[in-house]
Amino acid sequence: MGIFSLLLIQGLVVFFWVSHVMKESILEEIKNRGITIGISLSARMVEPLLAMDFLRMKVLVDETVQLGDDIFYTFVLDRNGRPLVYTFKHGFPIALKTVNSVSDHKKGSMKLLDTGEHLIYDYAVPIIINGDRLGTMRLGLFRTRAEKAVNKVMISALVTILFAIFAAGVVGTLLLNPVTENIKKLYASSEQALRGNLDARTAPMLKRNCWDIMQCHQKECPAYKNYHHRCWYLAGTLCPTCVEGEYARTIDSCRQCKVHKQCSGDEIQSLAESFDAMTLSLNGNLTDLRDTKSVLNEQKALLQTILDAIPDFISLQDLEGRYVSVNEAFCKMLDKNKTDIVGQKNIDLFSKHRAVLYDQEDREVLGTRIPLVKENKVGGSKGTKWLHVVKIPVLEASHGMMSIVCSGRDITQLKAVQEQLSHAQKMESVGRLAAGVAHEINTPLGIILGYAQLLLEELEKNSQSHEDVATIVKQTKNCSKIVADLLNFSRSSESHIIEFNMNEAIEEVLGMVEHTFGLNHVLVRREYHKNPLWVKGDKEKLKQVIINLLNNAFDAIQKDGSICVATDGKKEKEIKISISDSGCGISKENINKIFEPFYSTKGPDKGTGLGLSVTFGIIKEHNGSIKVYSPGLSGKKEEGGAQFIVVLPSHLNGKKGEINGENSRIG
């Protein structure tokens, strides 16, 4: 009854749907037929309408009405809407002229009219030649007769569907019951299998088994006493008629066996036996898969751990450029998580210019199958880095590309060390050259200076010869000073480390140079920290630093200016010394080169270019730093000039209370 009711409901639904579609199709066909007849008749009506041949027009409309019983009327209106010919027997109905109209750019117009006795489809079709409208063709079709034909078809279809449903329900009910019982069992077993129970059994128990039929008592055979699985589905049976190999080969031989002939059943039973064999095979395969999955997961975790432990960044990309796997170093380099990188392309992770460059390199590696080795200089928010990058194509066994492995490492420090080593080698060569030149020149200079001084004592003081020899003495002393600077630069002198107050050391230096500076109207201002600034280091060398910086400031001013010497010890672990001037300043081109040996912006007779280089070396020797700012003094009245800031580590031995006390007061 359930199947019968279902078929009945489905049949009725299909009937109403089909009947609706059929009705709409027939009515649509009738509508299209009216438009087609109207268009055809309007085309034929052009010539007699131009000739105003009323007889021919009358013949055409009469012939159209005789085409079928469903055509009610036909008439023609001129361009002013006056009837020319019509098929009405009792006169033309005036109201019919204006109930339906059509514009020039449409093929036709259709309206449903109710005459009280019939429903009429009224069609209006324009009669046009060369864009000029001659009149209107009107046509009326009975809808009532069309609906009768549709209803007749629907009744026939309903009777046919009901009879087919009844017959199908009766036959299906008779055949379905024995089938559904076995299907229910199979369904229940499949549900158990879906829940993970692959030990569910579906096939019925046999009255006689293979060991009974063959009178076999080999207990080691996998089919012996196995009541739930048929022997032809089992591998490794000991039956002498079985063929070793896969199931597809063994089943052909088993079909000739008397066990198969006596125990095999219908299609449902074969399906149940196949299902039991499938669950048995799946159970074994799943066990193997679980073991394999466990091993693969362990290997994958181990491999990922190894990759993450490698400091080099490593990535794997497929042929489309998507990142398949990355290690922890790659994530840190991009400052992203693995989930944000895997599955993305270069355009999603890098700038447009860099992504286009990387894609081009990847295509070149894939095209040539040659590894790419390069060094990249990459700029970012954390500064400029140097990266050593290697891209290698990964090939399949068939020599087809599968992916690209990219590995690289940050060699910024290595580059810096290489530059420092190169600079050190250059300085070593310069130092050796300077020492050799100095030693070679020092002896003849001493002889020249000695003889010149002796000669100077013998000459009259106001004579021209005395002035010339005095010039020789002066220039020889300048040469000796240059040689001494070269020797000081080329060799390391022994340092004498003591504790001293930096303010007092600066004041000692200013006491020596302030008078000389004052002769050229160069004023020195002092802005010392209130408390003593204790430093541990070589006092004479640090005084040399102050002298060099003051001399540079004086040379930049030359005349009429000021120099400001300021110290600061607000930070507990460092002191600052600032020397700023109101001179000409340092250009952007020179500011990065002033600490290089033998580099000078002064004239050829005013310096060796070693002062700031020696200053830089002394400060580095004391674990300090020096910076230069130019042009202008920020926050000062002077415009232009340069400012040198020296930072040295403070020494608090025995003086900590004073400095901390001052810091506490400032805080």
Topology at a glance:
Layout: H1 2-44, H2 46-51, H3 54-65, E1 71-78, E2 83-86, E3 109-114, E4 119-129, E5 132-142, H4 143-194, H5 210-213, H6 247-254, H7 258-263, H8 267-309, E6 313-318, E7 323-326, H9 328-334, H10 338-341, H11 346-349, H12 352-368, E8 372-380, E9 383-395, E10 401-410, H13 412-458, H14 464-490, E11 497-501, H15 502-519, E12 522-527, E13 534-538, H16 539-557, E14 561-568, E15 574-581, H17 611-621, E16 625-629, E17 643-649, H18 656-666
Parallel strand pairs: 12-14
Antiparallel strand pairs: 1-2, 1-5, 3-4, 4-5, 6-7, 6-10, 8-9, 9-10, 11-13, 14-15, 15-17, 16-17
Helix pairs in contact: 1-4, 4-8, 13-14, 15-16, 16-17
Molecular structure report:
It is a single chain. It contains 18 helices and 17 strands. With 667 residues, the chain is α+β, with helices and mostly antiparallel strands. It folds into 5 domains: 2-152, 2-Layer Sandwich (Beta-Lactamase); 198-288, no CATH class; 310-410, Beta-Lactamase (2-Layer Sandwich), CATH 3.30.450; 417-490, Orthogonal Bundle (Helix Hairpins), CATH 1.10.287.130; 497-666, 2-Layer Sandwich (Heat Shock Protein 90). Residues 632-638 and 654-667 have low confidence and may be disordered.
